[in-house]
Amino acid sequence: MTNSAISEMPEQWEKGFEALAQIHAQAFSVQGDRPWAAHELRDIVESAGCQTYFEYADDLITGFILTRAVCDEAELITIAVTPDSQKRGTGGRLLDHVTRVLSDQGVKRLFLEVREDNVAAIKLYRSRGFEDVGRRAAYYQTQGGNRVDALCFALILGD
Ligand SMILES: CC(C)(COP(=O)(O)OP(=O)(O)OC[C@H]1O[C@@H](n2cnc3c(N)ncnc32)[C@H](O)[C@@H]1OP(=O)(O)O)[C@@H](O)C(=O)NCCC(=O)NCCS
Description:
This protein is α+β, with helices and mostly antiparallel strands. Helix content is about 30%, strand content about 40%. The protein has helices at about 15-30, 40-45, 90-105, 120-125; strands at about 5-10, 50-55, 60-70, 75-80, 110-115, 130-140, 145-155. It has a seven-stranded mixed sheet. Strand 2 (about 50-55) and strand 3 form a beta hairpin. Helix 1 crosses helix 2 (about 40-45). The longest helix has 16 residues, at about 15-30. The N and C termini lie far apart (about 35 Å). It binds coenzyme A.
């Protein structure tokens, strides 16, 4: 991939929420997850402790990542890469960027939940050192009504 860069979502960027919603829908509809509307994403992005980063490549947004930190712990709320850009390192670059930023901010643990059947995401998280710390039974409901367990992962960023 050429000319890729990661930037923080600018404040007051109204069209940004539509862009996030579009990428979220493209990325998650494949696996039958409900897309998040622009107003839902706005509520999350504007909430306390939330940080949002995009990757751009040749002026197109290829993916984004959303985290929320409280004291020295953070949660990875979501990560989404457009289908055309997947398997080219975008997810890894976004995750590496955010873990560096959080670590610099003094965050010690990063937590997340992932569908147990999400092979791509689980591979990405394990490749970055996340470890299983639990399971939430029937945590997700797909658009088709199926219930799927969540695996809970944690990454230690500092002592
Ligand atoms: C999960 C997701 C963010 C990964 O993004 P990506 O840009 O494709 O990831 P990368 O190219 O950085 O790949 C990271 C690792 O995952 C692996 N991977 C990516 N997609 C994969 C797939 N479909 N099947 C198997 N492995 C896959 C890559 O091979 C790579 O492993 P490696 O480092 O051992 O080579 C992307 O697939 C996505 O947006 N999925 C839909 C949304 C989603 O499920 N988000 C996570 C919710 S918890």
